[in-house]
Structure of Signal recognition particle protein:
Amino acid sequence: MFSNLQDKLDRAFKVLKGQGNITEINVAETMKEIRKALLDADVNYKTAKTFTDDVRQKALGENVLTSISPGQLLTKIMNDELTELMGGTVTELDLSANPTVILIAGLNGAGKTTFTGKLANFLKEQKGKKPLLVAGDVYRPAAIDQLQVLGNQVGVPVYVDRDSTDPIAIAKAGVEEGKRNGNNVIIIDTAGRLAIDEALMNEITAVKEVTQPNEILFVVDSMTGQDAVNTAKTFNDRLDFTGVVLTKLDGDTRGGAALSIKSVVNKPIKFIGTGEKMEALDVFHPDRMASRILGMGDVVSLVERAQQQFDEKEAAALQKKIRKNKFDFNDFRSQIQQIKKMGNMKDLIGMIPGAGKALKDVEIEDDAFKPIEAIIDSMTPFERENPDAIDQKRRSRIAKGSGTNIDEVNKLLKQFMDMRKVMKQMSNPAMAAKMMRNMP
Ligand code: GDP
């Protein structure tokens, strides 16, 4: 995420590195570089200018404490200002009404339908809500199927009326259906268009009239940079939405949309989409995003994602197995599956402070676990439960069955045994303490 911008900001900061203090001259030079970096990232021109002017003033106004370097001071100021630029604090959804009606708007391909599914999943799993989805995209028959598939996947009902081509009537009927069935959140997916046109605007305004939504979320593809900001502005002028959803932040997004939308449209970004899977949705935290842009990582989000995926009861059962040295390949495989659910690897690594930068040029395959899973799949149930019993003959068979080779199987088994040993030691507090003491 934003690796290009990160690089360029890093370079801009170098101007100040090694300098004893902040002066008009070195700050002016740094700000020029920062502004260039922002413009290259497709940040709105006015936003970039106001931003660098603010940072410059702050930097010159600060008395440099002897304990921190100009570079560190600038990082701190940049962190604060970037956070502010993206909205300052988290803006949560207002879910106080019962039912809460949420209208989803945006252009075709922005990721509306995908987000609708993700939001239903989020509200059900994280907020304990009972959502109903309403399939209002009548112009694209596949959109209705897509929403039904997603609803099925996340276990949320979908209101569909395939006989109707009137999105306004469908939205209205959907809300009534939700009320009847006791759904406390009703999410309406609406039709998009390839570009903004009058008919679309009239239609969505009419849907707004009849459904009186509590939240209107505008979904936009972050890859489209400045266009995303312009589209947001047009939609907002007509619709007065309550928040923005930025999708596809997992790709090679330059960052312009994330950095400019709040200052141009004056509406908060509420969610970001970071992948195609239903779990790839994050509540937008301006401060965490600022740290990520500055290459400082985002440990808080990483831990939160892990907490969402790992069940406490399961973790306790696993601990018990580890202590008894009974951790087997079935456990190992389910751990891999849970890690995979947390998101794509590149994205996860980007959240570790420093790691994103260090590993930026390393090709990290999202299916790095594939050969490991293939090897485990080729084991018999007996072998999965009894890794110690996997002898040479069995190893050859597993290698053949999994389409890997004997070296890979040997390597995995060795790693597994080593890991099991370390885990057992770590699960014993006295041993763990001893190991820590022996660490270099
Ligand atoms: P709609 O026309 O606005 O309903 O868009 P869709 O929900 O059908 O999404 C368009 C495409 O973008 C689909 O292929 C989605 O899988 C993909 N997509 C949606 N959100 C994300 C995201 O956050 N990251 C990535 N990488 N792809 C996404």
Remarks:
- Residues 106, 108-114, 192, 247-248, 250-251, 273-276, 280 surround guanosine-5'-diphosphate (CB under 6 Å).
- The chain has a mean pLDDT of 85.
- Strands lie at 100-106, 131-136, 158-159, 185-190, 215-221, 243-247, 269-273, 281-283.
- The radius of gyration is 26 Å.
